[in-house]
Design a protein that fits this description.
Helix content is 65%, strand content 2%. The chain has 204 residues and is mainly alpha-helical. The protein has one domain. It is globular.
């Protein structure tokens, strides 16, 4: 069994994805319209997450297993860490939900999803074949992950969960996993549980 893996080793500077660092990085990576676009995608993904009560009957248990295996593989524990990684995973799912149609992202072939080995197939796509389902330019994806990391660190870093334990490579691993889970739901016509707009607004 191959675990989900971090995409690369981040430097301490990258791991602490402060707002100032993120803004500077986005200016280096993207033009003004590009920065505005990825911020808009992130805002849309956050709104989708507010409406998302539960992933589908297929991907809800699958996502839980993969996240718990990731935590075990990387010697991570604690409710705070669990919540932070789950937020990142759901953010990845929501990202695909709002991104796939408008940007014509490719999907998966149903024949490539063996029902008896979805765990391993999800890991393979997230780790080694992510470009087959996500065709944004590398600099755009890098900027997007920076925003996601800043958000997760801002919401979940604490005295007992330091920011450096929520590094960018760790957050990206979960975002990729969630993104692939959404691809699986699209392919299998499995639907998540969403609240209505008014209920989501009251939760926000």
């Amino acid at each position: 069994m191959r675990p989900l893996r971090a995409t690369r080793t981040s430097s301490p500077r990258e791991r602490r994805q402060s707002g100032r660092l993120t803004k500077r990085e986005l200016r280096q990576l993207l033009s003004g319209p590009g920065r505005k676009w990825i911020k808009g995608v992130w805002a849309a993904a956050e709104q989708y997450t507010l409406r998302l009560s539960r992933l589908s009957p297929v991907t809800s248990p699958l996502g839980t297993r993969l996240m718990e295996e990731y935590m075990a593989e990387h010697n991570l524990s604690g409710e705070e860490m669990h919540r932070a990684l789950f937020l990142a995973l759901v953010a990845g799912y929501s990202t695909r939900a709002v991104l796939a149609g408008p940007t014509e992202q490719p999907g998966l072939d149903a024949s490539s999803l063996p029902p008896d080995d979805l765990d391993e197939r999800t890991r393979t796509i997230a780790n080694d074949e992510f470009e087959s389902v996500m065709k944004l330019p590398p600099e755009v994806w890098k900027g997007y992950v920076a925003i996601a990391t800043m958000t997760v660190q801002g919401k979940h870093a604490s005295a007992t969960l330091p920011w450096y334990r929520l590094g960018r490579s760790r957050i990206e691993a979960m975002i990729r996993c969630g993104y692939v889970l959404r691809c699986i739901d699209e392919t299998l016509d499995a639907e998540p549980v969403l609240t209505d707009v008014s209920e989501a607004a009251s939760r926000g």
